[in-house]
Every structure is written in C-alpha cells, then in structure tokens.
Amino acid sequence: MKRGFKNISWSEYTLVFMLFIALLAPFIAGNEAYHLIPYSENQMDLNNANAVSPFEKQNIKSKLHHHWLGTDELGRDVLTQLIYGSRTAFFVGAISMFFAALIGLIIGGLAAYYGDHSIKMSRLRITISTLLILTYFIFIIALIPWDISTISLLEKIIHLFIYSFGFILLFIVLNKWLKKKEKQRALTYLPVDLTLSRFIEIMDALPLFFLVIAFSALFTPNLFWLSFIIGVNAWPKVAKYFRAEVLKLKKTDFVESAQTLGFTNVRILLKHILPNAISPVLVSLCFGFASAILIESSLSFLGLGISSEHASWGHLLAEARNNYQAWWLSIFPGLCIFITVYSLNKLADRWNRVMSFTNKH
To answer: What pLDDT is recorded for position 361?
Structure first.
C-alpha cells in the first residue's frame, strides 16, 4: 500500500496536465505569433461561424488556422474555449475551496476546542452578543449594494470592511463593559459546541446547488463572486471533518502538555492541532473542488453563472442544447468535465484509503 502511494496515479497525471493547461492558457491560445493556437478567448471567425465541424471543410488562411475541434455558433474556436474553460473551472474550484476551508476550519475548530464547558458568561452578555451578531449579518446583506453592477467590487469590499470594523469595535466595547458587570451576576456556560454544531447541521442539510442559485440572484455574476458564493455555502463538510479531528486530538498528551505549559489557545490550535488534523480536511476539499466545478458548469449551462465573455465548459454545453447536430459542442466539454471531476474524486478517494490504512497501522 505504501509502495502504491509513492507511485503517481493516472488521476494525478491528469490533474497536473489540466492545471498546466489552465495556468498557461494565455500563452497557448491567442493572437500573437508565438501562440500554438492562433485564436483568443472571444475571437470570432466569421468565415467559419454557425458551428463548423472539425471534419468539415473550413474557410481558413492556412493549416495553422485550422479549427481542430470545430467552432461554435459565433465562430469561436472550440479548442480555445476548452483551454480557457479549464482556467475558469480551476479558478472557481480553488477560490471557492479557499473560502470553504477558511470558514470551516474556524467554525469547526472553535466548536470542538472550546466545547460546552469552557467559556462562562452571564445570560445578558450571551443575549446581547447574539443579537449583535445577527444584526451585523442583516446590516451586511441590507446596506451593502451587492446587486448594483455600477458599483465596483473594490467599493463593496470597502463598505464591508468599514461596517465590519465598526461592529467589531462595538462588540469589543460592549463585551468589556458587560464583563465588568458580570461579577454581580450568575454566570453560565456558553454552549459553543452545541450552538455551532447545530448551525453546521442546518447549513449542511440545505441543498448547495439551490443555495448558490439563490445567492447568485443578489450579485453580479462574475468569477470571484461565483467562487465566493460557492465557498460560503460549501464549508459545512469541512467544519464537520475538522471538528471530529479536533475532538480526538484535544485529549492527546501533546495538546494537554501544551495547555499545562500555558500556551495560548490560538498557538495550540494553529501549531499543534491544525497540522495533525488537516489530512481529512484535504480529502473533503478535494471532493468540494470537484463539486464546485460541476456547480459552475451547471450554472453556466442554465445561463445563471458567469457572463459569456468568459469561456466555460457549461457555456459550450448550452450551445449544444440549441444545435443537436453540433455533437462536438457537447462531446468535448462533457469529456473535460467528466475527466476532471472523476480524477478529483479518484484522488480524494485514494487519499482517504491511504489515511485509513495509516490510522489502522
């Protein structure tokens, strides 16, 4: 088993190749003389419009300008669209999983590490803190003009930063004031694990695809916001895996020794628990990466994803829906989606089996 793990599988070769194509897309396809494919992402060849097959006679200047995988209805080169579509797929997958990991690790780690009997505070402080957090999210959704396309992304981020800074400052001041008053009141344990675990379960029960569609209606469809929306709805799986690992590691000797030595909770979580609990999270992120690619392609297919200015495998499939005779518009992007998602799932499954074998021995 160990010897097999050292050997690189075909799924890893496939993913490395796809990633290589995605990263070098601007250098592979374009209008410059050094490009291997002489067509840019949105360049239209009007002489070969209306979906020309790869095997049809094409009206081209030379053999170098041949459309090896055909064209779409607008005369865009399908091979170029597939190359830039891989860039879109990997961008959405990577950014969405970054946000999913960030949120999931924080919530799952806090729930498991602090539990239900670590933090004491008054009921008044718990109530006011909860109301303040709920008010923050309501203000963020209501006051920031997420759906107005004329306002740039930078302005929206600045608004988010200003409101967040104000609420954090208010939260700190109120908590310090309430903490002074707590000496005269009965304290109760704050059920951190119970509250966050129920929140994780509720979010995990909601269908990810329909959540993304609902949130997409509030934002201008672009690559970053689509990735962000997928990420903030895909974190529950990460949180569940990380919470389970932290619960196991919290009782180990090295964590208890670190607590005895007086290390801060942040240091214990980041330096001692996180490196030992990250492996199952990586498996979850790998599955999530594949899911994000499928969601992006599905939304583009339905016309709810990114604009047609960006190449997407889902856009090509949507064009095939309007022209059933153009088989190349469905076969090639469909193969790209299948191979990429299948390779990611095989890689995640392999990591999972290796970790199970390691834990048993």
So the answer is: 56
